[in-house]
Amino acid sequence: MAEGPFRVMLRMQIKPGMQEEFERVWLEVGDSVTSHPANLGQWLSRDEEEGVYWIVSDWVDEPRFREFEHSDRHLEHRTRLHPYRSGGSMTTMRVVAHLPGAASAGSHGEWVGVR
To answer: Which PROSITE patterns does this one have (predicted)?
Structure first.
């Protein structure tokens, strides 16, 4: 059986009053992650809890993610987002199965940059 993607999930606590600027900068620097040849996509979600965001990114495998994680490209990405952060955590996992929903045939591109 083929292994599924390697998923990285970050929980980020953003400093009060900096949420909109964080979202803008996250979109500006996102291609430093998504342009990596091993990246399958990245999502930013705002939690109901004030100032909490979840970032999910999928990778072809763990070694390629770890390669990115230790790269200058990742350091620059973290450096740009660090001023907004007051805390956070990271969890990694292997996607075991995916069941697409009925609405998944449509494009989700309309979500980019929409508040």
So the answer is: ABM (PS51725)
